[in-house]
């Protein structure tokens, strides 16, 4: 049935006929995308026109008008209807009665309605007071009644918009910036709002409004297609959820992808990100042009006339040289009049580097010209091209907008073909703030701040750009990235030695942080393994800077002063090995005097001793003396920010010394879980007592924070720990009761836990690594499973990244020897099964 036929049926059959025709239209598979949106708008137009005609015989002085999205004819399956009943000021009662006969049938069908009743003068006055109303009226479309009345309003509203543009566009720009701050950027969000996020449908509508002002126009290339793609996704979202929503939630992405015929949710997000990137870039270009025009209009007429008179009546545009073939004009980097991109293959990189160094955007017209006329670079690149790329990457924050301009015209993938696989690629990890490609640029931006602390800044910056380039390939991205980095390094002109260093940096870019947070740094085997992988002190220096830049560019959960201190400690130890310094053979460092006092006190009292401190510096070599039974008041809110003048807080460190016995790890972990304390990091080791004192004490070093509220009293913690150790407190039952009373909301199903045995990680212990979804009581469950397996936990290293827990346990048999291979594998399987149940 054609859309006209559907419309006729709706008109003939009243609301019931419209509802049936609408349902058929939304469920027939042959029509989707723009044709379905147009057909739905036409169907609704016909129905509303029929309602209007049945409700009044008046054909002059009153009309029904569609505004906003409905005015544009963009009706998604669950879109609301934006309607204006326009009249010439006639009797209010008659108009109100007509409105009721129009609005109630819409409400009766369960369709959301945004409605208003106004005269043309009232509509214009409201638009002058409310920018959003003015934007909606720019898309006004006549549905029924007096066509002349609607046309006159459209003409007046558009004239008002153009006349008021110098005042209203800055207001609109501020609204867009505020919305972007509140909603985030569509091109990076895992659960984006397709309409309100920056680069979404709202911004696409704003660009139409700016164009209607005649003050500036948005780039047209790809904009209509990007808008259509987002509308298609919203249509599929409405059909998949049955709701009027713009939020693309994680649990609905697979269904939406299937509705659109896409492979999976990642393919869906990549399409959304690509569309958002086009709209965001168009917005950046458009608002720069608006600013330029408004600044030029603010110049005093006499001064402008004087400037024009010197140039034969033409405006004078000041041009300042930036680099060979590149000048600054009107706040942008543009090509010089003498530039010849067709003869200068390095010009794209030179222009980009000059713009970033000057902190200027690269003109869209310049980028388009470079994209269409510049010669490709030879392989390997000339030295100047490589230097300009390094200069661009080392320019700091301005690099981002220049890189986005190159991306918008396809110049990045032309220079680095491997970039295509990571472009707009989502990262389904809450720790990551960015897509893969933007994360690489953000890492280069962070690395630019570390170039003064390394001997080869160029290698650091290129490694930052390439460290995750393997994420576009199957398998371990570090392994794949090493191969790609070798190819790219050779292509852009690095020699064999430098290429080998870059390959090592990419291959091992996670080595330092993973080792520092998941391995025992007092174990010489740990340090020797890192030294062997890194090879040289210069490479270690570069890897240290890359590690920090990578983590800072990932997100706040990926880096902290605590992690930084652990990495720095590891680097110091590895540097000593590489320098040939003698290394201790003992696997456990001797306890400090303070740790000995804690151990002796625990041994003397026969029970646990607690001590804690707020850390604002990396942990020193000493531990605090035993604490009083209550927490000091300054520690009641460990998560509160530090003062502006003080150092960064690292959290609350909780030290527990317990006479060596079975069940310590699950007991302590369970008590902390009972008191709703989140364990950020944890270490456990056995501390021998001083000479003359038999036995040993377990020392647990934890960093904790309250999930909410204040920390519990130390006396309560110690009392519960004593009961847990003597068996009078059933922690498992208490945690189960709490979970039953307050069940956690079901969200996205996390990936299953994975437990592995790390090969050759230690000479005197077996290292079992656990990766699982972080949850209250997780460490308690792991400790209990290890106890049940009959192994001894020599040390534990706990770290949490967002919702992911990565814990490493150094375990031995009862006599203190590592587990044989088959026994270790059996313990790992048991742990994994305990986490799956």
From TrEMBL:
Comp. bias (Low complexity): 633-648
Molecular function per GO: [protein-PII] uridylyltransferase activity
Cofactor: Mg(2+)
Catalytic activity of the protein: [protein-PII]-L-tyrosine + UTP = [protein-PII]-uridylyl-L-tyrosine + diphosphate; [protein-PII]-uridylyl-L-tyrosine + H2O = [protein-PII]-L-tyrosine + UMP + H(+)
E.C. code: 2.7.7.59, 3.1.4.-
Segments of this protein annotated with the region Disordered: 615-648
Chain ranges of the HD domain: 436-559
Domain of life: Bacteria
Pfam families, per database record: ACT, GlnD_UR_UTase, HD, NTP_transf_2
Domain ACT: 653-738, 767-837
Protein name, per record: Bifunctional uridylyltransferase/uridylyl-removing enzyme
Organism listed in the record: Streptomyces anthocyanicus
Gene responsible for this protein: glnD
């Amino acid at each position: 049935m054609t859309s006209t036929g559907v419309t006729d049926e709706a008109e003939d059959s009243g609301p019931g006929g419209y509802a049936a025709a609408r349902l058929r239209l939304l469920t027939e598979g042959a029509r989707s995308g723009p044709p379905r949106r147009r057909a739905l708008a036409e169907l609704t137009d016909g129905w509303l026109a029929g309602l209007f005609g049945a409700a009044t015989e008046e054909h002059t002085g009153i009309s029904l008008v569609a505004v906003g999205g409905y005015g544009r004819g963009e009706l998604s399956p669950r879109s609301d209807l934006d309607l204006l009943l326009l009249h010439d000021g006639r009797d209010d009662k008659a108009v109100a009665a007509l409105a009721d006969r129009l609005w109630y049938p819409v409400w009766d069908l369960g369709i959301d309605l945004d409605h208003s009743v106004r005269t043309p003068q009232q509509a214009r006055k409201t638009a002058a007071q409310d920018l959003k109303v003015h934007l909606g009226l720019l898309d006004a479309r006549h549905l029924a009644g007096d066509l002349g009345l609607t046309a006159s309003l459209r003409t007046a509203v558009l004239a008002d918009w153009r006349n008021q543009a110098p005042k209203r566009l800055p207001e609109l720009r501020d609204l867009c910036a505020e919305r972007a701050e509140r909603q985030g950027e569509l091109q990076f969000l895992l659960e984006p709002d397709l309409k309100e996020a920056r680069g979404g449908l709202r911004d696409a509508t704003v660009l139409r409004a700016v164009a209607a002002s005649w003050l500036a126009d948005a780039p047209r290339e790809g904009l209509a297609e990007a808008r259509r793609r987002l509308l298609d996704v919203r249509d599929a979202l409405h059909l998949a959820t049955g709701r009027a929503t713009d939020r693309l939630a994680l649990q609905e992405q697979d269904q939406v992808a299937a509705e659109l015929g896409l492979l999976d949710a990642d393919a869906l997000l990549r399409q959304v990100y690509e569309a958002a990137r086009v709209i965001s870039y168009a917005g950046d270009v458009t608002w720069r042009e608006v600013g330029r025009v408004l600044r030029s209009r603010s110049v005093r007429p006499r001064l402008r006339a004087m400037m024009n008179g010197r140039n034969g009546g033409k405006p004078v545009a000041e041009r300042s040289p930036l680099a060979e073939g590149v000048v600054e004009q009107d706040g942008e980097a543009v090509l010089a009049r003498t530039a010849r991109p067709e003869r200068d293959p390095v010009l794209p990189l030179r222009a980009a580097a000059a713009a970033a160094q000057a902190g200027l955007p690269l003109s869209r017209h310049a980028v388009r010209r470079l994209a269409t006329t510049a010669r490709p670079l030879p392989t390997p690149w000339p030295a100047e091209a490589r230097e300009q790329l390094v200069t661009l990457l080392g320019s700091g924050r301005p690099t981002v907008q220049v890189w986005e301009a190159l991306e918008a015209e396809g110049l990045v993938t032309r220079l680095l073909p491997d970039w295509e696989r990571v472009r707009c690629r989502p990262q389904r990890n809450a720790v990551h703030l960015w897509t893969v490609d933007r994360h690489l640029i953000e890492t280069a931006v962070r690395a630019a701040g570390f170039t003064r602390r390394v001997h080869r800044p160029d290698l650091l910056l290129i490694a930052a750009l390439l460290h995750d380039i393997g994420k576009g390939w199957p398998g371990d991205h570090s392994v794949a990235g090493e191969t790609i980095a070798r190819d790219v390094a050779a292509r852009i002109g690095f020699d064999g030695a430098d290429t080998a260093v870059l390959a090592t940096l990419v291959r091992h870019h996670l080595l330092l942080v993973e080792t520092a947070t998941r391995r025992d740094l007092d174990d010489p085997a740990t340090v020797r393994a890192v030294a062997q992988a890194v090879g040289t002190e210069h490479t270690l220096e570069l890897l240290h800077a890359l590690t920090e830049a990578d983590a800072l560019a990932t997100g706040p959960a990926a880096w902290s002063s605590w992690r930084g201190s652990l990495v720095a400690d590891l680097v110091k130890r590895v540097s000593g090995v590489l320098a040939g310094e003698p290394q201790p053979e003992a696997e456990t460092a001797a306890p400090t005097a303070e740790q000995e006092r804690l151990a002796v006190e625990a041994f003397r009292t026969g029970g646990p001793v607690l001590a804690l401190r707020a850390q604002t510096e990396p942990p020193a070599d000493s531990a605090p003396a035993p604490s009083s039974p209550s927490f000091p008041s300054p520690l009641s809110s460990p998560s509160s920010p530090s003062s502006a003048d003080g150092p960064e807080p690292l959290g609350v460190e909780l030290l527990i010394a317990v006479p060596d016995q079975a069940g310590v790890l699950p007991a302590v972990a369970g008590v902390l879980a009972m008191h709703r304390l989140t364990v950020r990091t944890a270490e456990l080791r056995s501390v021998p007592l001083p000479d003359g004192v038999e036995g040993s004490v377990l020392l647990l070093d934890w960093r904790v924070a309250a999930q909410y509220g204040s920390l519990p009293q130390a006396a309560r913690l110690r009392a519960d720990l004593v009961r847990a150790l003597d068996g009078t407190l059933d922690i498992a039952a208490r945690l189960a009761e709490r979970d039953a009373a307050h069940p956690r909301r079901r969200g996205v199903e996390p990936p299953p836990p994975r437990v592995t045995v790390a090969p050759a990680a230690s000479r005197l212990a077996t290292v079992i690594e656990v990766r699982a979804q972080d949850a209250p009581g997780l460490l308690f469950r792991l400790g209990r499973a290890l106890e049940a397996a009959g192994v001894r936990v020599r040390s534990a290293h706990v770290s949490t990244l967002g919702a992911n827990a990565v814990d490493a346990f150094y375990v031995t048999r009862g006599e203190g020897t590592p587990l044989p291979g088959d026994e270790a594998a059996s313990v790992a399987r048991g742990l994994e099964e305990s986490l799956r149940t």
